[in-house]
Design goal:
- The protein has 308 residues and is mainly α.
- 52% of the residues lie in helices and 2% in strands.
- A two-stranded antiparallel sheet has the order 1-2.
- Strand 1 and strand 2 form a beta hairpin.
- The chain is globular.
Amino acid sequence: MIDPNELLDWYEREQRDLPWRRPGVSAWQILVSEFMLQQTPVARVEPIWLDWVARWPTPSATAAAGPADVLRAWGKLGYPRRAKRLHECATVIAAEHGDVVPADVDTLLSLPGIGTYTARAVACFAYRQRVPVVDTNVRRVVARAVHGRHDGGAASARDLADVEALLPDDATAPRFSVALMELGATVCTARSPRCGVCPLSQCAWRTAGFPAGTGPAKRVQRYAGTDRQARGRLLDVLRASTTPVTRAQLDVAWTDDPAQRDRALDSLLVDGLVEQTPGGLFALCGEGEVQADSACSDSALTAVKRRR
C-alpha cells in the first residue's frame, strides 16, 4: 500500500507550480487544461493555456468564438480534433448547463470529447470529489508500488478499483490523487525512474529487485514523415492566412509525397477542420465562402468527392 502521509508531505515540498493548479482557477479552465494535456507535454501546453483562458475564460466565451479562431489558438499542440471537440463541449455547457461545467461524472461523460479520465479529473481537481483518477502516470505508480510490476500495461477496468482502494477517506483524497499523478510524472517515470528520491518507504517493485517488464517493448510513436505531420503542415498554411488559399499554396507545404498530402487533406476535410469553398479554395472551418458551422462537417465528404 501507499502511505498517504508520505505522498502528501512530498507533494507539499516538491509539486510543480502549474497554472491550472493555482487558487481561483475555474472548473472550465481546469477542463481546458485536461483537453490540452492529452498526449502533450506540460511545457507546450502552459503558454497556450494561459493565452486561451485569458481570451476565453468561460464556456460561453469559447462557444462564441469561431471554429477557425479556436484552431488558431490551439497552435502547435497537435491532435487539432481536440480543439474542435473542446469548442463543441463549450457550446453544450453554455447552452444546456447554464455556462457551468457539471460536477457529476456521468453528466461530464455525456459531453463532447470527454472520456473516463477527463470526467473524473474534473470531478476530482475542480470539485474536490473523492473519485479515482487514472492516467498513464498513476497506472505506472500503482503497478510498481502496489503490484511489483515494471509498468501498468494496458488500461483495464481494474485500474479504477485499484486507485479507489488507495484513496484516503477524508478531504485529502483529491490532493492525494494529484500527488500520485505528480509522482509518476516527475519521479516514477517510465524510462528513468528516480527511485533514490522516491518518498514511498514501501514499494513492491523495489522490494522485488526491480524486475523488468514481461510484455513487448512499448513502441515509440514516430511523428516525422507521418500523416499527422502532413496534416500539421497543411493546417499551418491555413492558420497563417485570414482568407481561403489555393490548392497550389497547400501543395508546397508537403512536396515529398503527393499521395500522402492528398490523404492528409482529405482527412482534414472529413474531420471538419478544413472546408472547401464552392470556388475550389480551402480554408479553416468557418472561414470559407460557406460560413455556417454545419458546412464544416455536413459537406466534408461532398468536398472530398468534388476534389477527386
